[in-house]
Fold these 4 entries.
Entry 1:
Amino acid sequence: QVQLVESGGGLVQAGGSLRLSCAPSGSILRINDMGWYRQAPGKQRELVASITSGGSTNYADTVKGRFTISRDNAKKTVYLQMNSLKPDDTAVYYCTANLLLRLWTNAYDYWGQGTQVTVSS
């Protein structure tokens, strides 16, 4: 069974940096769009950044200029480099990817289990 495996969360002081990584386990035929969402306590899950298979990116206004999403297609991995972190960035961050597992089937969205990012003031 395919899963998205995330890593890189943790505790950091305001102004610091973290890099999140996410890759699918198991056999994948093709990875389409990938992205990161986050959910803070008491708030709805929100899009942080996304990247297409061709490398086009999209960012939430709140993270533009501080976060960078990238992907390594050979490693089937998506990254989220987070700089100048603020306490408001504290949340559980979820990786998502649209995956095609086999020919003659549909691609579906998969989600990671989430990784906690805590930014102290």
Entry 2:
Amino acid sequence: QVQLVESGGGLVQPGGSLRLSCAISGDYYAIGWFRQAPGKEREGVSTISRSTGNIFYADSVKGRFTISNDNAKNTVYLQMNSLEPEDTAVYYCAAGARATLMSQWYDYWGQGTQVTVSS
């Protein structure tokens, strides 16, 4: 059993930054960050493999978002820079068996944290 708790969401102006945290209890192979905006399908944002360190990003966030992990704290971070209104969504972290942006590979999900980018 894996439990995940996200934090760090909030309201930020366009061009601003936020750092999301995902605190994890239990063993996992990969952590993914996903987001879902109202009326839209859930989208894979980034993922990191705990063992290999492999990292992947969605094209929409490349160059703006950075995923990292602190194994000592069992926490994965998502640093989000140059935020745009289109980044507004509920962001979820998830634990799964494969570092992929496809949500079906993830078995455990956090409760989500709201990110709103607006002036």
Entry 3:
Amino acid sequence: QVQLVESGGGLVQAGGSLRLSCAASGRTFSTYTMGWYRQAPGKQRELVASVSRSGVINYKDRGEGRFTISRDNAKNTVYLQMDSLKPEDTAVYYCAAGSSFWSPNEYWGQGTQVTVSS
């Protein structure tokens, strides 16, 4: 079992940056692929990026080059650095953990709102 708690969301102007954090409980954090998803109003939840337990990273098209995922297994934490934010990045961002590298989705956090103003 893994429990996930996101933080770091908020309101930012276009062009700004935010760093999301996801703290995980449990001793098995390092065995899971971790991912960040987002869901904008009226849209389906989509994967932003995932990072395997060994540090291999997968980025979906959106955000590549502007978003950076990383993990610190010693701190049981995964991060999403978001730079050059755009209004279309506005969404609820969710942290997730799972066995699949391409879509880790067995455990979910509660989500954190990111709003980018123009």
Entry 4:
Amino acid sequence: QLVELGGKSVQAGGSLTLSCAASGRSFSPYAMGWFRQAPGKEQERVAAIRWDGEATWYPDSLKDRFTISKDKPEQTLYLQMSGLTPEDTATYYCATIDYRLTGPYAAWGHGTQVTVSS
């Protein structure tokens, strides 16, 4: 089970850190990632990290503002976001990935809402 936390309303230019707690024994995915979904827009990948921490992935449009990290012993994933704009408004989901950092998502949580106002 994946549970995202940390979403809230923020002002443009602000920062926010999301977390995702994974439950279950022997949790060891190949990788984890974050994606977001805004109303009327396609799902968008925002970051991914190999669970051994040796590789990360970001789309070019977000790599300067978003940082993904993990606490492996705590089975927790994080997404640090800065320089937020109204275009970042979306529901953010964390997900497990079975292969390749841009591979299909295997499981995801219920999401956490981020709203950025101008």
